[in-house]
Specification:
Blueprint: E1 4-6, E2 11-13, H1 17-24, E3 27-28, H2 31-37, H3 45-48, E4 52-56, H4 58-66, E5 71-77, H5 85-101, E6 105-109, H6 111-117, H7 123-139, E7 147-151, H8 152-167, H9 172-179, H10 187-197, H11 199-207, E8 212-218, H12 222-235, E9 241-245, H13 272-280, H14 290-296, H15 304-313, H16 317-328, H17 334-359, H18 363-366
Parallel strand pairs: 5-6, 5-8, 6-7, 8-9
Antiparallel strand pairs: 1-2, 3-4, 4-9
Helix pairs in contact: 6-7, 7-17, 8-10, 10-12, 13-17, 15-17
This protein binds tryptophan (TRP).
Length: about 375
């Protein structure tokens, strides 16, 4: 079995996503469940291609929904740097859920978390990144009437009473077992998970009645939400429904795009030239020489450029299949794929950057304030 580790703070090794689901105890999203979603709208590409591939209690939440019980959405962002494509992926999906079900969304920005978990970051820095990241969220086109963004240190007045009730139900021994804390961990880290749980109940508190909550996010966040779900009944709230995605791959071939390798990461503010350069150096499934690739074909299974088509940038299933087949047959070389992907990403970023500029005057339309 391959060695790998996935925690909310670190990913190492080659992730086996089926194995991870077993370790965490989450349920696969199967074709029947996707079919069931079809009733509400054409399933999003990320669902159809099983990038969102695992869940907790989605079927139960849909049963409730069909009985007339609505739900709200909750997701979040830890502002430790500028936004990259990997961050946008679950947010794009969250917007699809909002559009499809008309659901309200609470968006938590955890400047406190990144201050506590990153040795070299000040609270001023994490707050600055919070506002940068918020521009990217707004730029994706969420409904301002139904989207409520908050920064932990600024909205703490509302979060704190909920976090306290959560915290009282979690022992140190549970937190240590779930997150692997040590005696040397700072005590803010130990408390933090109760702050990430709070928005899962915030909707119930603001509505004045227990309300179902759906959280679309990376599967690396599951340790937090296992705790959230365990404490929910004791607080009189429904267990949070989870929808989990795989992590967006790095351009260097790793499993997670990460700011720790900026050259293998595409930021939302990158220029077309930078994007071209980064994709030019991407890890592909190409052979050592053109002759050999023409003869034996390439390997899209390991190719990051192909993965980017698959995850986000080729919506047409037929075209995707064609790229795959042509690569395998040696009819298509890496240069062509890289050029096509560069064009697609740059077209996407051009629009995104225009919307991001406009978002600068719209922040308060979206902020939830004390
Ligand atoms: N811990 C997440 C991160 O580091 C941020 C976050 C807070 C979050 N609440 C969330 C992510 C809810 C997904 C869902 O990025």
């Amino acid at each position: 079995m391959a060695e790998f580790e996935v925690t909310p703070w670190e990913v190492s090794g080659d992730i086996d996503y089926d194995e991870l689901m077993k370790r965490f105890g989450t349920t696969p999203i199967d074709d029947a469940l996707i079919d069931r979603m079809r009733k509400y709208g054409e399933p999003h590409l990320l669902l159809r291609r099983k990038i969102f591939y695992s869940h907790r209690d989605l079927d139960k939440m849909l049963d409730d929904y069909e009985k007339g019980k609505g739900f709200y959405l909750y997701t979040g962002r830890g502002p430790s740097g500028m936004t990259h494509l990997g961050h946008l992926m679950p947010w794009i999906f969250t917007k699809w859920v909002q559009d499809t079900f008309g659901a309200h969304l609470y968006f938590q920005i955890t400047d406190d978390e990144k201050f506590l978990f990153k040795d070299d970051m000040s609270l001023e820095q994490t707050k600055d990144y919070a506002y940068e990241n918020i521009l990217d969220i707004i730029a994706l086109g969420f409904d301002p009437e139904k989207t409520h963004i908050f920064i932990d240190t600024e909205y703490i007045h509302h979060l704190y009473p909920i976090a306290l009730r959560v915290a009282k139900k979690i022992t140190f021994s549970t937190a240590r077992a779930v997150f692997g804390f040590q005696n040397s961990s700072n005590i803010g880290q130990i408390f933090y998970t109760s702050i990430q749980s709070a928005p899962a109940f915030l909707g119930s508190v603001l509505n004045g009645r227990p309300t179902n909550c759906l959280v679309p996010c990376g599967i690396d966040q599951d340790p937090h939400f296992r705790v959230t779900r365990d404490v929910a009944p004791g607080l009189g709230y429904p267990k949070t429904t989870m929808l989990y995605c795989k992590l967006f791959p790095s351009l260097s071939g790793g499993d997670k795009m990460s700011s720790s390798s900026p050259d293998a990461t595409i930021y939302t503010t990158d220029t077309p030239k930078k994007v071209k350069k980064k994709i030019g150096r991407a890890f592909t499934g190409g052979a050592v020489s053109v002759e050999e690739q023409r003869k034996n074909g390439g390997n899209p299974e390991v190719c990051t450029v192909y993965k980017y088509f698959y995850y986000m940038f080729e919506e047409d299933d037929k075209k995707l299949r064609q790229i795959y087949d042509e690569c395998r047959a040696g009819e298509r070389l890496c240069g062509q794929c890289k050029m096509e992907l560069t064009e697609k990403i740059n077209a996407f970023l051009q629009r995104h950057q225009e919307n991001r500029e406009k978002a600068k005057d719209r922040i308060e339309e979206f902020m939830l304030r004390d």
